[in-house]
Amino acid sequence: MVDFFLDYTQKNSCGECVPCRIGSKRMQEIVKKISNGSVSEEEISILNELSEVIGASSKCDLGKMAGKAVKFTLQYCKDDIDAHRNGGCGYSVPANPGWKAIVLK
Amino acid sequence: MANITCTIDGQRVSVPEGTTILNAAKQVGVKIPTLCYLEHVGLRHVKHEVGECRVCVVEVEGKKDFVTSCNTPVEENMIIHTHTPKIIAARKLNLEMMLSDHHLDCPTCPKNGICELQKLCAELNVRQIRPQGEKKELPIDDSSPSIIRDPNKCILCQRCITACRVLQTVDALELYGNGYDAVVRPKGGLPLIETQCVACGQCALVCPTGAILEKDDTGTVWKALADPKKHVVVQTAPSTHVTIGEAFGLPVGTDITGKMVAALKRLGFNAVFDTNWSADLTIMEEGYELIHRIKNGGVLPQFTSCSPGWIKFCEEFYPDLLPHISSCKSPQQMFGPIAKTYYAEKKGINPEDIFVVSIMPCTAKKYEAARPEMNAAATYWNNPNITRDVDVVLTSRELIRMIREAGIDFANLPDEPYDPLMGEGTGAAQIFGATGGVMEAALRTAYEVITGKTLPKLDFEDVRGMKEIKEASVNMNGLTVKVLVAHSLGAARQLLDKVRAGELKDYHFIEIMACPGGCIGGGGQPIPTTVEERENRIKGIYERDKKLKIRKSHENPEIQAIYKEFLKEPLGHKSHQLLHTHYTPRGKSN
């Protein structure tokens, strides 16, 4: 979901400020590495710093949201991240749980 | 205006309402680093404070996120912290982000040593680039003979856009795209040469990195200098006389004419001449043209034609006003054909072997020299083997680089004189380098030619200085000649709109210079070229004018000689052949 949101950020960023323009791209690159299990401890720490700085110093709320979304993910979804790093994804919710069917019921 | 009191790093400060945090901090001796911010873009009122780089962020108590100091006004009782560990870390990481997408070829970058990004990284102690990832590989745009764009080095600070859109009103650049793919590019993504760019180079002056710079032609000149068959002559523009020294540690505005001549001789030029000489020639032709237009009911007001950026601007945006422009070529383009005709004849040199180099403050001069119609010498001799009138144009910055390459100790050079025949220049020509100068020089000559009397006071102070639009009127034998002066194309546009609306019919002469401050603020001048530097260089120009023995163009003995021996009379047959030109309507509607 974070990857998806960073994609959204990239597509909608006006490109004017550095944290949003370049920072969200760098964050996304690391998030993708988390997903495919190739991320290093150092990269997680950079991601932490990036999310903090981008969340506080972007020009508008779009960049700030991108930073904060990653920051909260790192804070609250640690288990999920660890699971990815260990090669599995035990805790995650399937991408499409079939909302349509649930709502229609 | 009410004053506002706030606290910056523990110090209380009271500033007028609307003052930014950055300026308030300056008052208590706190320097907040900035990168994209530029206080004055060419002129004092053109500001650039978009808050793009996020380097100047500070912490304000009670606010969750950081704020940029360059464009946030202080509020009553604000408590501001400018260098907490969090802020310092954020600044550095912002720079690291920027560098993670930067081509780090600093040692070979033409901006090496004067790059603001480089300087800031040193200042802020950036020692590593931790975030790593994709780097942009965008094509370099070298379509223009004047300006090269390397978008890979662009940090999207948008200073160039402000210079182009707000200062010059040319609007040839735009920010395009979203997110990481955003770029600053010529309008519509076209190569620069196909846009309405006038090549003034103001974008290059404000670019903090090596993303926009002049096209480097030093290699061609080195090659010509090494060719024994070539007779290489060089001319130096009025404004270079007071600017080259800056790069060698001399105070801004120092008169280095003698040293520059010595340096050029050491570089191996066969003859060193002065564009001041052809500026005097321009005054003779342009002054007589004005008198001719006034006497014969020609198109008035007459516009000056010395600034090639301005010429392109008029061709692009005001093609209907082209008949107002004087048909005289600029001093640079008057020098070229004369060197390949008069000088060649006098010295018995085959004009095919003469190679003309110009030292100019201007990037648009490269474009001007490349215009297809600028080959009068070849037409004069009816010899297609003669190359174009001016072979290579070097900006002040390129000459500075050549002097450095040759290992010349510029600051300690002895003064040397120009070569005779085309080397004598008057004070009138010298002031061509500053805004209002061409006008003042023209008035000095026109007054004496029309009235037959000696001018009681040479200095026309009304047309001097950094005020955008200046006005003067001079009584000449009952005729009140009214003149206007504008510098920067934004100011020119204001005047041109009035001319188009028919509001300036009772004016006779309008001087327009594309660059703020005139040529001393040209796009090829040493970097930085700030408003302060422009003012100091202007001071240097008028000091040199005062020092010179001859201060009126028509009193220049070498100019008198060329009319006697070669041209015969201003606006004569040969003058028309070699010194006058025509213009081409361009722009979207043409």
UniProtKB/TrEMBL annotation, chain B:
Keyword terms, alphabetized: 2Fe-2S, 4Fe-4S, Iron, Iron-sulfur, Metal-binding, Oxidoreductase, Repeat
Species assigned in the record: Thermodesulfobium narugense DSM 14796
Domain 2Fe-2S ferredoxin-type: 2-86
Protein's name according to its UniProt entry: Hydrogenase, Fe-only
Family annotation (SMART domains): Fe_hyd_SSU, NADH-G_4Fe-4S_3
Pfam families documented for this protein: Fe_hyd_lg_C, Fe_hyd_SSU, Fer2_4, Fer4, NADH-G_4Fe-4S_3
SUPFAM superfamilies: 2Fe-2S ferredoxin-like, 4Fe-4S ferredoxins, Fe-only hydrogenase
PROSITE patterns to which the protein is assigned, alphabetical: 2FE2S_FER_2, 4FE4S_FER_1, 4FE4S_FER_2, 4FE4S_HC3
One GO MF term attached to the UniProt entry: 4 iron, 4 sulfur cluster binding
Signal peptide span: none
Domain 4Fe-4S His(Cys)3-ligated-type: from-to ranges: 86-125
Residue ranges occupied by any 4Fe-4S ferredoxin-type domain in the UniProt entry: 145-175, 188-217
